[in-house]
Amino acid sequence: MKTYSIEEQRRIDSVIRTCKICFVGMIDEQGDPYVLPMNFGYDGDAVYIHSASSGKSIRALEKNPKVCITFCTNPELVWQHPDVACSYRMKAESVICNGIALFESDFFEKEKALNLIMRQYTGRDFSYSIPAVNNVQVWKIAIESVAAKEFGVKPDKGRATVRP
Asked: What pTM, to 2 d.p., does this model score?
């Protein structure tokens, strides 16, 4: 089985939009890795997340706003031979993004971000009360770098980039 790089932006966008959650990695206040599964919205340039206005993740990001976000499509068990254990592998696509988390404070930008998040799951916009918007923390993570892979694929002569 092979792993292939995904370079086309439309495929990267498709992987991200297919996912129901993302995993956001950061460094906590003690300097330890801290990863959270989160709901998200995506506009092609940034990932938007919402949370409570305080807590461990907020304190961590105030100290160090660098984050790594991972997306992975639903994995599928594949194999080359059903009786050879080492021929089994999970087949899926993944995207890893790095960026800086900024907390959005503008009411209308928060509302736009919340609708972007809701469109990810429902395909539509909502109306929000003033307290609902004011009491939520919205994170905007502008994507600074991205790496995407398709893994667990049988070798194919038509693929351009092969990674062992």
From this structure: 0.86
Residues in the chain: 164
Indicate the SS3 state at residue 143: strand
- Counting beta carbons within 10 angstroms of the beta carbon of residue 61, is it exposed (0 to 12), middle (13 to 18) or buried (19 or more)? buried
Nearest one of 23, 101, 109, 120 to 63, comparing CA atoms: 101
Q: 114: closest CA among 51, 71, 34, 26?
A: 51
Q: What is the pLDDT of residues 42-73, one digit of tens each?
A: 999 999 999 999 999 999 999 999 999 999 99
d(CA 8, CA 116): 23
DSSP state of 82: T
3-class state of residue 64 by DSSP = coil
Topology of the domain comprising 2-153: Pnp Oxidase; Chain A (2.30.110)
